[in-house]
Amino acid sequence: MRRGVPSTAVPRFFSPYLASSTHANHASSWATPALLKKAFSFTGSRLFLSGVILFAVFFSSSNVLFSSIASAQSYDMPQGVTEISQQEFALHRMMFWCCVAIGIGVFSVMFYSILKHRKSQGHKAAQFHESTTVEIIWTAVPFLILIAMAIPATKTLIQMKDSSEAALTIKVTGSQWKWQYSYLEYKANNTIDLDYLSVLSTPREQFETPLRAAGLFPLGVASYTGERKSAPKNSDYLLEVDKPVVIPTGKKVRFLITSNDVIHAWWVADFGIKQDAIPGFINETWTKVPVGKEGIYRGKCAELCGKDHGYMPIVVKAVSESEFDQWLADSQAAQKKAKADAANSVDAVMSKDELMTLGEKEYLAKCSACHQANGQGLPPTFPALKGSLIASKPEGLATHINHVRNGINMMPAFKDILSPKVMAAIITYERNAWGNDTDQLVQPKDVVKDAQ
Amino acid sequence: MSDHHPTGFSRWLFTTNHKDIGSMYLIFSFAMFLTGGFMAMVIRAELMYPGLQLIDPNFFNQMTTTHGLIMVFGAVMPAFVGLANWMIPMMIGAPDMALPRMNNWSFWILPFAFAILIGSIVVAAFGGGSAPNFGWTFYAPLSTKYGPPSTDFFIFSVHLMGISSIMGAINVIVTIFNMRAPGMTFMRMPLFVWTWLITAFLLIAVMPVLAGAVTMMLMDRHFGTSFFDAAGGGDPVLFQHVFWFFGHPEVYIMILPSFGIISAILPTFARKPLFGYPSMVYATASIAFLSFVVWAHHMFTVGLPLAGNLFFMYMTMLIAVPTGVKVFNWVATMWQGSMTFEVPMLFSIAFVVLFTIGGLSGLMLAITPADQQYQDSYFVVAHFHYVLVSGAIFGIMAGVYYWLPKWTGVMFNETLAKAHFWCSLVMVNLLFFPMHFVGLAGMQRRIPDYPLQFADLNFWISIGGFGFGLSQLLLLAVVWQACIQRKGKKATAQVWESAEGLEWTLPSPAPYHSFSTPPFIKAATH
Amino acid sequence: MSSHHPTTSEHSSYYVPEKSIWPIVASVGLFVTVLGAANTIQQHTGIVASNTGHYGTWLLATGLAILLFMIVGWFKDTIHESLTGMNSAQLGISYRMGMAWFIFSEVMFFAAFFGVLFYTRLLAIPWLSGAGHTAMTHEILWPNFQAMWPLVKTPDGRELEAMGPWPLPLINTLILLTSGIFLTIAHHAIKLGQRNKVLVNLGICVLLGFSFICVQAYEYHHAYTEMGLTLHAGIYGSVFFMLTGFHGLHVTIGAILLTVMWFRTAKNHFTPDNHFAFEAAAWYWHFVDVVWIFLFFVVYWL
Ligand code: HEA
Ligand code: HEA
Ligand code: CUA
Ligand SMILES: [Cu+2]
User: CA C115 to CA B209: how far, in whole Å?
Assistant: First the structure.
């Protein structure tokens, strides 16, 4: 396991799902089966008492379980690596134990009463029903407890909101269902030109296997997506991306978080950050990963953002300052070169094979989330391309190009996201795959401006 | 007024009788509980293992959305209205609800409203289009610009539900204000009546705001307005403010009547008067008041200014005080009592414990910095199912068992009912307790698939889910035996040894018309 | 209200209607209406591509017809009950309380939109222009946007003209206030049993009500054709039309209610101590008045 990566360091109990079975520790066979047996085996007159015992067993066992697995840092909030995340963790722990204490207090009085003050024990009911004194006490004491809780919470909150004096500023833009990272400013230099998308890299065959697509009782061929496949899963299943966002350690990094379409949320638990990405607004948040905590940190989109909300992970790579400087320079150079290449390649004429191979690859990565690998989409929200008027009829070409360039309805505009070469390849692929046989080839130069 | 019983199906369609209407509400609510529960089962089946098992992600989102909506608006709220219809006139010595025809109208809107919502999910289940898929909170712009066509139908369905609840609430308020028997002063009213009075007030205050929210959605979707669109000067977060201004009082709407039920049951089986009646009333009122100023605790991560976050954190924490008063009063009621543990009592005790657990996790959520980690994780899902399922629903079940003999005239099958209780109790904890841990470990809500680290607990959660679902069939059996087959020994008027209150002075089953001549109340009956 | 304790004799005469077909008719009517409305909207705005067919308008019309049928029938029943003396004083109180709480729910409905207005005006628009903690929102996303109210230039650059308080809105304010005065005179008259005085004053009130609607229609026309102030004109237009539109709808309903009351007065339905319907309509009208006063200050003037 990598260094400084609590969230991925959890034991993975469910070995059958792992690509490389790790036979991880089996702390998971926790109390439940025994409990279940108990729950179902008792009958008879002492029903109630056994119930109380059962209940007590349940709670004590779950508490024990909680503290043991909590200390193993697997089923508790991660402590994280930043000051903020650790303060959040401390608050969480403080609150948790206070609540356990209050719970134990209240429940033990109650269960004592349940055991002692029962008719079957011959207990006679008292008739008191009022006491202003105790009412005042149990109003005032909780109030004081709450004040004690609020003080540290307030302190942390104030600190969290202070994103001033950052060394690096990164704009993070959510869009269905990928993250875009734009490096805006580093060490007071605001001429940085680096900007890329980061998408899930877990291969689709590892998860795209529902028994029933398009509902629970799909009717008709169009809603059937094929036989169940079960590829073994990577250990970072759903937590891996093609290009992580890279930040330096020991520096304050400011994130400007926004969205292009619906609301997303950028959540990296190890930094204690969860910030909603609101279209049309920019929210600020920040982090500072201490030197020595270089490593990979994983997070995910935390706000329901449509179909693939669960497939929108975040990977942050924290590297030392010098490594970061190097990376930043290299990446900018590479991006510059790629842009130049793209500009040159506009005039290139590609063969059908080239277009189709590149097109298929890019289609699967960029388009299949909605239009599906088989081109049948998920109508009506995500229309089918297979056999559609636009993609399978020669006269649909211009519309096709314009939709890809400018977007339509829920589909985003791709003209600033994809190079002409890639757009051309995708369109060619869509027009000649799954039985669409327009036999039209689209070249990069055809897609640099809107078609007529 | 004679005690004649209309018959045939026109009895149900045209009725103005509070008991008939109450029964229809309860039946409807149970049907919705099964429907929403079925959706929960699909959710749990999908989440049993990592990977996409059963359904595609879009359909999963539709399941989550309709599960939440149906449970909230279809199961819990109508159940409370049903209980109110049955019990409030009997408890305050009235002949019926104040506005009987409107009462029937409030009910009959509901099946139509839900026909629209469920219609869209049924169509979607057969592969046609998409039902609402944006969560029960339907945040813009996911529900506006990006919502499926069925959203428009959903909007109108919410309008209908709103009309129904507002009329139901008006009826309750007017009944309580205007129909009390002589001598039934406010401070002599049973707590169930009190909590419902306050609930009704909350309903009338916030349902129109929900109507406003969906209306703005409709305008943004079709008429070019920019309420939730920054490009025109609006703000997507505005939607959340409007929604939660409704939504938070809504969650108390879903718990206050249960508080009232528990406050009725504990004294009966502890054979001891409710402790601190006046403070219970004041606490309920304070909770209702505070519920209007805490809404943004659902929005701690949207980027509110610091002052906003602080204000809403403090106000939210404050709600623990009056709620604590209630819990302490319940415990004090049991203290030094002479308790027996019939089924309503069992559910009530479980309510007190499990609701408190849910409340305490709510308090953890209120700590804004820590909520950065909790928000939109399964920790929240655990919190609200503790307060809703083992809170609101257990409260409803306690009430149903408590009053069932009064309704049917026969004692229900206690063995079966006890089995229902114990199975439910065990399973509900197996279902929702581990959710705290997967949530803390980082599993987000509303996902059809998850990283492998969560696989283990999710398996057990699903087992608990199926178990809890199956346990509810026992409830169905008990109710079937008591209501349809009328099996069981004859119930006395008082039913429970030391039950007190006007409803217990009527014979069991309660006559078709409650108090044709009002009783005179000389002393407190709570 | 709370101190009212009904006596036994009042109770025994509480009228519980036997059976009624109207609630179910009303529910079916609402159902058909909303199905029709949703379909019509999808059909005519065409924003949502769907195959919901073209039966929307017909459904909507049918639904509204059912509702109309129901309203007429239901009110006929209650009027009959009232005229034949089945209603006790206690039932009268129930009706009045019911109406009062209904108006409270309407207040909350409008409160939501006023809330929206204040939120956008005091928070969202300043934030879009970089106030407070949102400097970056301004700098990166909307660098050319300036906060102002009324918002006559949206962040994405749509321009429009704002509706001032003068002359039409002020005229409308005066119309509504005067109508309220006439209504109050009519109300006093009904309590004194002066039927003709009721008819005259209520008549004037109704006419003023309808002229309000005409002025507003003219104002809307002007806004759409000459000021660029439309539903599409950003948040100012949205809030403006939402508030004034729903208010206008309520004025229309109120005016219709009062018209019905005029005819019922003419038919001698009301006595000095039995005129709940009139009172309810009057309350409604005053509520609509009060909302307008708020509107006038908050939407047009400030
Ligand atoms: C019946 C419904 C119900 C009830 C009663 C509550 C009660 C409370 N809820 Fe809950 N809540 C929901 C239903 C409910 N909630 C739902 C449905 C959601 C999710 C919505 C969604 O996003 O889909 C939610 C979400 C939610 C959040 C947002 C989480 C997030 O999304 O990030 C928060 C945050 O503050 C919160 C807090 C609270 C608090 C403080 C209470 C308090 O009222 C609890 C008070 C009770 C106690 C504290 C226990 C008893 C008290 C004592 C024993 C006294 C002594 C105690 C102390 C001094 C500490 N709730
Ligand atoms: C009062 C309200 C209420 C109730 C009672 C429930 C009951 C249940 N809920 Fe609910 N839930 C919500 C309100 C409620 N929920 C809300 C508001 C949300 C948020 C939605 C959103 O995110 O938008 C939510 C979300 C939610 C999720 C998260 C989904 C997600 O984020 O994607 C899950 C996951 O497990 C879940 C599970 C369950 C289960 C297993 C039950 C069980 O208790 C149900 C048990 C009942 C039955 C099963 C029916 C009766 C039995 C039968 C019909 C017999 C047949 C049974 C079998 C075949 C086993 N709920
Ligand atoms: Cu993006 Cu969820
Ligand atoms: Cu809340």
Answer: 10
Residues 6+ apart with CB under 8 A from A225: A208, A210, A213, A214, A372, A374, A376, B56
DSSP E strands, A213-312: 245-248, 253-259, 264-268, 273-277, 283-287, 295-301
Q: Are strands A273-277 and A283-287 parallel, antiparallel or unpaired?
A: unpaired
| Contact call for A128 and B275, based on CB within 8 A | yes
Contact B54 A54 (CB under 8 A): no
Question: Cβ distance A142 to B359 under 8 Å?
Answer: no
Classify residue C77 by its DSSP letter.
H
Q: What is the DSSP code (8-state) at residue A284?
A: E
Percent of chain B clearing pLDDT 90 (strictly above): 82
| Nearest one of B294, B219, B190, B282 to B252, comparing CA atoms | B294
Rounded distance between C-alpha atoms, residue C262 and residue C257, angstroms: 9
In this complex, which chains have at least 3 CB pairs below 8 Å with chain C?
A: A, B
Per the annotation, the verdict on B298 as an active-site residue is yes
CA B306/CA A153 separation, integer angstroms: 12
Which residues in B259-369 belong to E strands, given as ranges? none
CB A85 within 8 A of CB A269: yes
CA-based nearest residue in chain A for residue B438: A75
Out of A117, A209, A278, the one facing B52 most closely (by C-beta) is: A209
Lining ligand 3 with CB less than 6 A are A 174, 177, 264, 301, 303-305, 309, 312
Q: Torsion over CA of C118, C119, C124 and C129, rounded to 10 degrees?
A: 30
Would you call B335 a catalytic residue per the annotation?
Answer: no
Residue C244 pLDDT class (50, 70, 90 cuts): very high
Q: What is the DSSP string of C252-282?
A: HHHHHHHHHHHHHHHTT--BTTB-HHHHHHH
User: Using one digit for the tens of pLDDT, what is the confidence trace for A126-144?
Assistant: 888 888 999 999 999 999 9
AA identity, residue C74: W
Hey, is B19 helix, strand or coil? helix
Highest mean pLDDT among A184-198, A327-341, A357-371, B398-412: B398-412
In short, whether B468's Cβ falls inside 6 Å of ligand 2 is yes
In contact, B512 and B3? CB cutoff 8 Å: yes
Name the 3-class secondary structure at A426: helix
Residue B44 near residue B462, CB atoms below 8 Å: yes
**A413 touches A405 (CB < 8 A):** yes
Query: Which regions of A75-206 does DSSP assign to beta strands (E)?
Result: 168-175, 178-186, 194-198
> What are the tokens at A379?
């109508």
Contact between residue C151 and residue C236 where contact means Cβ atoms under 8 Å apart: yes
- Contact yes or no for C61/C55 (Cβ under 8 A): no
Task: Order across the sheet with A178-186: list the strands.
Answer: A194-198, A178-186, A168-175, A253-259, A283-287
C184 close to A (CB below 8 A): no
Assign A408 a pLDDT band (cuts: 50, 70, 90). Answer: confident
Strand A178-186 vs strand A168-175: parallel, antiparallel, or unpaired? antiparallel
- Enter the tokens of residue C81: 């009950």
Indicate if the pLDDT at residue A18 is higher than 50. Answer: no
Query: Residue B483: how many CB atoms within 10 A of its CB?
Result: 17
pLDDT range class, residue C11, cuts 50, 70, 90 = very low
- ipTM, two decimals, is 0.92
Give the pLDDT confidence of C79-124 residue by residue, as tens digits: 888 888 787 888 889 999 999 999 999 999 999 999 999 999 999 9
- In angstroms, the CA A255 to CA A282 distance is 9
Q: What is the C-alpha separation between C134 and C147, in angstroms, rounded?
A: 13
